[in-house]
Amino acid sequence: METIEDWISELKNTDKIIIVEGRKDKEALNNLGINNIITLKQKPIYKIIEEISESSKEVIILTDLDLEGKKLYSRLRSGLQRYGIKIDN
Questions:
Q1: 65-87 pLDDT per residue, tens
Q2: Which residues neighbour 14 within 8 Å (Cβ) at sequence distance 6 or greater?
Q3: Cβ–Cβ < 8 Å for 23, 41
Q4: Number of domains composing the chain
Q5: How far apart are CA 67 and CA 53, in angstroms?
Q6: Rounded to whole angstroms, how far apart are CA atoms 19 and 22?
Q7: Were 20 and a residue from 25, 28, 56, 66 both cysteine, which residue would form a disulfide, CB within 3.0 to 4.6 Å?
């Protein structure tokens, strides 16, 4: 089993885009030295999906586990997969 430190190290060294819900999520990851983060509060989801499809082939989605976070994850996953983007779970 992977430790949290190993997982954080992998996130620091990945070139995959990491998608989070808001500014505080991004700040928390930045404080851990993780970059290449997009927040969902910047633009409509369809615009984010289009932009990601032009620049990346694999993403990591880190949404909250509440009802809204699960809905966002589902919308992002299905939209990104339509563009052939792989979701790294």
A1: 999 999 999 999 999 999 999 99
A2: 36, 60
A3: yes
A4: 1
A5: 26
A6: 9
A7: 25
The DSSP bridge partners found for residue 19 are 38, 61
Q: How many residues in the chain?
A: 89
44 backbone dihedrals φ, ψ, rounded to 5°: -60, 150
Write the burial class of residue 58 (CB in 10 Å: 0-12 exposed, 13-18 middle, 19+ buried).
middle
Which pTM value belongs to this model?
0.89
- Within 10 Å of residue 12's Cβ, how many Cβ atoms? 13
Q: 51 is in which domain, residue-wise?
A: 4-87
Looking at residue 36, which CATH number applies to its domain? 3.40.1360.10
69 residue type, one letter = G
| Gap between the Cα atoms of 45 and 40, Å rounded | 7
